[in-house]
Amino acid sequence: MHYQAPVIQSLRVDSPSLRWAIRALTAVVWFSSGLFALFILAFYLGAWRMDEMAAWNAFLPGLHADDGRPAATAGIGVHFVFGALILLLGPIQLVRGLRERWPQVHRWLGRVYAASAVLTGLGGIGFIALRGTVGGPMMSAAFALYGVLMMLAGVQTVRHAMARRFERHRAWAIRLFALAVGSWLYRMYYGLWFAVTDGAGHTEQFDGWFDLVMDWWFFLPNLLVAEIVIRATQVRLSPVASGVATGALALVIGVLGLATWFFFTRAWWPAIAWGLGI
Q1: I need a surface site. Which of 6, 67, 146, 185 has the fewest CB within 10 A?
Q2: How many CA atoms lie within 13 A of 24 on its CB side?
Q3: Domain limits at 183?
Q4: Helices (H), the chain
């Protein structure tokens, strides 16, 4: 039987400038998160390849310790590898042209994407259960909830697709993407905060007031935005509202672009070059 892509409602955008702003924001997010994924793979796998596992603690303390619990290190390694993969695959799965022209590719990539989300969550939760987090109980609870939600979204996305409940599939796919970019946003928020405030509210133990806020902020607001997008399937904006939305998106694009440049030149590229032996 010939597969026919489901007709799914999408956000109605009449303003050409707003359409381009949305596309530009999508491109910036994909490019920046892709660079972050490359950093994760090159640095952490490079450290493992060179037997320099202590380097894992350079960006977040407590990721590696010679404490006789190699399963914890393996768990966080799985979390890193498959977390990078979902950052790369997520935007591809949301491309409508791919879904309509090559549905088989969309389906198989979707299975890999969802399985990677489950493995990412399992790896992170396993690490927390065996070793805990540097920030203590609050960080451990928040990060564990993040992992559970990631796994739930991955399973539900595939389950509803296989049952051909495409509206629900689309909703869970949006939630999964919102969660997938959380790890990237976590670094972005910290980088921007340090640039503006020089690290106010942050401690080396990640238990300052800003750290406690960030334990939850990197993924819960994403889910709120996802719910708004899911429900706003048909929206007509006035010219004034379109102009305001375009301006707001342009500001976000500029901030993300500058933050990406800052991270890439100051942290990601040196770590990538070190991991690849360049």
Answers
A1: 67
A2: 18
A3: 33-242+268-276
A4: 16-49, 70-93, 96-101, 103-131, 137-162, 166-180, 182-197, 209-217, 220-231, 239-263, 269-276
The Cα 86–Cα 71 span in angstroms is 22
Within a domain: 250: no
pLDDT in tens, 52-87: 888 887 777 777 776 666 788 888 889 888 888 888
Residue with structure tokens 């706003």? 232
Q: Which of 73, 82, 78 is nearest to 130 (CA)?
A: 73
The pair of three-digit structure tokens given for residue 59, joined into one six-digit string: 């960006």
Question: Does 216 map to a domain?
Answer: yes
* Domain total of the chain: 1
How long, in residues, is the chain? 278
pTM of this structure:
0.80
* Residue 256 belongs to a domain: no
Amino acid at 74: A
